[in-house]
Design brief:
Layout (H helix, E strand, L loop, with lengths): L5 H31 L7 H20 L7 H22 L3 H4 L1 H18 L1 H17 L10
Helix pairs in contact: 1-2, 2-3, 3-5
Amino acid sequence: MNKFSVNNVISFIYHKVLLPSSFLYAILSMATMMMIDEFDSLKLKKAGLILLFSLAVVLSNLILQIKSINIVMRATIHFVCMTASFAGIMLYGSGNFKTNPSGSMMLLIVFIVMYFIVAPAPIYFLYKKQTKAEKGKEEYKKIYMQ
């Protein structure tokens, strides 16, 4: 069977992109509604921005799973993608950057600080999992009996 068949591509998009982004969208929407404390005030534009940001986060997380790139490069690319998607979608797309630029910069700084607090743990565990898998693939060499 062909590795890149239509069913495999659709399955990959569904399982690796759409399901996680839908789950993240639901969580972010509920958190936003709780912060605003008004369930009717979540407008269609904000819901669309949250959905777009959720898709960007999931696609950024897929970068971390590329094994052909060094873990430091993957983490750097992930950081740049996450920061750009937050700044572009959530701040600039919502119009908050135009109306309150200093508040938007503070939100961006808070996002970057939170990223450096939260992100190292999953990246470290991903690195350990990858090195453990690579270590298991080494050939066994007999050292006692020749």
